[in-house]
Write a structure and sequence with these properties.
Blueprint: H1 2-23, E1 26-29, E2 35-37, H2 42-70, H3 72-76, H4 81-97, H5 102-105, H6 112-137, H7 149-186
Antiparallel strand pairs: 1-2
Helix pairs in contact: 1-2, 2-4, 2-7, 4-6, 6-7
Length: 187
């Protein structure tokens, strides 16, 4: 039992490291934050599907802490202490922790590929919701005066989150399919 926990902890730590490395490979970067990466959320999804929501959320949370530490200057742009706290929660801790729930949202679907795709999509949309709310509550001053803040946040955050969700879903399905195939061959 103890050996299994150690193996799971090490694997989840490796998923955090892999997510961090993939986050440095930027496909597209927006001027006020947010970018499309080389599927940096995929290892968080893999941790979730391999070890369940508890380990998945833990893995996403640790990754969120690391992302926050690497991008802390973003937090410093907040106008008030309350905005800083909300930024830490919405843009980092909660946003990445929800990715660890991917396995929960994919339950009930018969085909594994559909389960993974659905789980990634719902968890990704929850992450998008965190960014959307953050845009409305914290980053509202970036919205053009002629546009409602909610519409600006929806469009701005959607411009990188929707492609990121699609790329992550496709990559996760392909990797899970390959892992399942390898597991069948080794049994």
């Amino acid at each position: 039992m103890r050996d299994q926990k150690t193996k799971t902890l090490v694997e989840c730590a490796l998923m955090v490291a892999l997510s961090t490395i993939l986050s440095f490979i930027t496909i597209y970067k927006l001027p006020q934050g947010g970018d499309i990466t080389a599927v940096s959320m995929m290892p968080l999804v893999l941790a979730s599907f391999r070890h369940g929501p508890k380990w998945g959320v833990f893995t996403g949370f640790v990754y969120g802490v690391i992302q926050m530490m690497m991008g802390f200057e973003n937090v410093m742009y907040c106008a008030t202490f309350g905005a800083m706290v909300l930024c830490v929660i919405l843009d980092y801790l909660l946003a990445y922790s929800v990715m660890g729930l991917s396995c929960v949202f994919g339950r009930g679907l018969k085909k594994r590929e559909w389960s993974v795709a659905a789980g990634v999509t719902v968890a990704g949309l929850l992450r998008y919701l965190c960014s959307f709310l953050s845009g409305i509550i914290i980053w509202r001053e970036y919205a053009p005066e002629t546009m409602p803040v909610w519409l600006y946040s929806l469009g701005y955050n959607g411009s990188y989150m929707i492609p990121e969700i699609i790329l992550t879903a496709v990559a996760s399905v392909l990797v899970i399919r390959a892992l399942d195939k390898q597991m069948k061959e080794t049994v």
